[in-house]
Fold these 4 entries.
Entry 1:
Amino acid sequence: MTTEVEIPIFPLNTVLFPGGRLPLRIFEVRYVDMTKACIRDGSLFGVCQILDGREAGTPAQFAPLGCTARITEWDVPAAGLFSMVTQGEQVFRVLDHHIQRDGLIRAQVALEAPRECTPLPEGREALGRMLGEIIDKIGAEHFSQPLQIEDTAWVAYRLAEVLPVSREQKLYLLQERDALKVLARVEQAIMDLKE
């Protein structure tokens, strides 16, 4: 079941996955205003991968698929600058969008239903152990809590974030609804790296 809502869109040179942790530094006026509104209202914004253009300046062309982001931590280290941490929540598809006079993109989006937790399938537990080792080396503070090492989608998404997977592959993984297929693609990417 999908829900339609209007949210601001933040095009970035990254793909945010549900459960992902994304630190950001915000300085452009349109995004500072967006951040203030999200903090004030407890609302979400959408992160979409840039297809053409840049993160700053003229609004970029962006993928019609993204992930909502919720601000979980924030600070104002200087006037007109926000330092914040966001967490990915739900995958969405852009139905329509418009650009405000200040350059902020607002979009009507269809939110996909959140994935249910599914245990790692038999024979794939090694991927969970691999992720656990990576988390130990990088530091658990770089991952959203609680850690869900036994959940298929959570493990697949976190591996896609830390492995050298192309943005195109990440976008493909974001649009795939079957968590087992996402995990299989990530496992194939790991095998390709070993060759």
Entry 2:
Amino acid sequence: MLPFWIALQFLSSLPVRLPGMPEPEQLGRSLLFYPLVGLLFGALLWLLNALLLGTPPLLHAALLLTAWVLLSGGLHLDGLADSADAWLGGFGDRERTLLIMKDPRSGPIAVITLVLVLLLKFTALLALIEQGQGVMLIIVPVLGRGALLGLFLSTPYVRAGGLGQALADHLPRRAGWQVLVAVALGCVWVAGWVGISALIIAVVIFVGLRQMMLRRLGGCTGDTAGALLELLEMVVLVGLVLI
């Protein structure tokens, strides 16, 4: 189960301690457990949602969103901020875009993007709470982390060396596709037609964002992977409210 603990340590702020530096093969296999980490997040959010029943809706949604962000430690929001700055400041140039992503500072575009994404996520959560669609709290985190697995399965990693390269090089491909099929079937089993709708929205957003990465960078980075997760989760939540 070491690959699961690696995935949990990397994707969450939960107090997980590994016995030592993992082997590259273990890092690659940890990607297979990303959807399981999403399922754990979803279960915790669903439980929190149940405990907050009767709380004023605005506070209810705000607490859920806060827990959602804290669980991941803001990891993917950081990637979204870096990607937003780089996409605008890169002016279509690959090397300039990659260089800006490495800058730890956040510009106004990053701040605006984070505010808008969190605002949309908050209002969508509020609407889903009022509609009694708490099951979406389980499905959406799974889809978001399943998208990370799908990205590494289907898209070149463009930064040589480092953790992301080890993940991409040692990911078991066949097992990865099997996990994605299981994720899709699980969403349908848990939520029926709503789960199918969530899957369709997620696939459309995944394909669109992946194409943007390929056109600009020729592949993905850790920052664009984080941006993909945050944008996909947000759009799925909003889409489920609107349909």
Entry 3:
Amino acid sequence: MRNQPDYTPAPAADFVLPFDLPNAGCRGRLVRLDRASARALSAHALPEAAARVAGESVALAAILGTALKLDGRLTLQTKSDGPLDLVTVDYFGAEGDLPAGLRGFARLDGARFAALNGTGDFAQLAGKGALAITIEPRLGGQTYQGIVELSAHGIAASAETYFAQSEQLPTAIRLAAAPVFTPGTEAPDWRAGGIMLQATPERAHDDDEWERLSLFLKTVEDVELVDTALQAETLLWRLFHEDDVRVQPAEPLHFRCHCDTDRIASVLAAYGPEEREGLADEDGVIRARCEFCGTVHAIAAAAL
């Protein structure tokens, strides 16, 4: 494995690690989230099966957003007809003093989920629907959106289809999410991780070589992606020790939410008093809860 002379190893978690396999004409990204994913999934208590999907979606958004070196926002969203009918994740590129960050939200119909008796796989949990990836540059530029049908095999398989259709690049993706239970607490925190391998568009790839490398990727176990005790570079060495794998400096990731009381107040002020009727509590305060971070914004109705 090769790296830069002044290379600093990746931290235990909350990073994305770019790497290249130049001899094979491939590139990739390894992401591992701990505090960022735990915070992103903390606003809503979800059953384990639904939280895994949400965690994997957060990891995927981190891979895609950082791969684009985006100055703006990337939104990954699933809409479907199953009990887990909506998952939304935003990736925000670094901006000024703000680091690159993530936030996420998932909506689950509890009654419909209960009818699955806890045995629902992804196909039953999400049902039929679509995966949409929206890219919004911060300063100018055109907004782009790509949409593919949700795969019954999960978020990773859906993303592979997206790349096959939109960029026509061979892409292999593995995602994982797992609960971490701390003694004395009822609700677990969630870790998430993922790895993507993709043929580079600059050079032709060998089909046999790609098949060999993508099979290596399929051998990655979930625990390897979320284990903060396993050095990221060690995992890449396990997978690609037969190849000249080169790693670049890890890029830090954080939780970020852009909800703002003044912005919410300005939206509410655009509506007439009759349209706002019934929104305020008995004390005359309108309380709006952010679905992403759980923050409750209190706005005096009289001030509007």
Entry 4:
Amino acid sequence: MSHLILVRHGQSQWNLENKFTGWVDVELSPQGILEATEAGELIKKLNLEITHFYTSYQLRSIRTLKIILDILKIKPKSITKAWQLNERHYGSLTGLNKDEVKKKLGEDEVHKLRRSWDYPPPPLDNDSPYHPKNIEIYDDIPRDFIPNTESLKSTYERVIPYFVENIQDNLTENTIISAHGNSIRSLCKYLFKIDDNEISKLEIPTGNPLILEFHQKEMVAAKYLDNSRAKNLIKF
């Protein structure tokens, strides 16, 4: 048996402030550091030898993985950072407070913008300091690949090809991916074969490892390690 561990980063500072974050690079909050630490302790109890390590380009995801690896006392030869595992780009919503947006647009519209399969927010202006083109960590990404906004569908369309080409063949060995709510939601849609309507109901908790068990690359079991914060849509 082999395992794929999916971990959404611990709470970020903008999660705490209830802001749409997307591709903006923000640090973990104190609570997020605690969540990442608890994730590491939960994974440690599994006593797994982890071989492959993936994260996004974003600090909150990288920091979460580092905290986990420190607890596991693992010093990997390499960690693969992939922008394709980044959070969904929230377009012109980036940096706005979610409650204020709800007051302006209404709860139904905000739910549709956040959770529907193919309904992106309006694009973010290229001159915005929050645009990825103006954030240094993305300087090595070809400009044509950097979005102005994304739906979950367009997020899925970058996450899954990367996963299939670069990660899926590693599933005969234990692998960990530290990523984000919507990149992990995309992976779950693919791995659990969740349809376009049901995926809107899937919540991904921060800092709660989801462990998938494989036999010859076929998934045979799945569970959250912290059952008290597990979400219920994933059925196996």
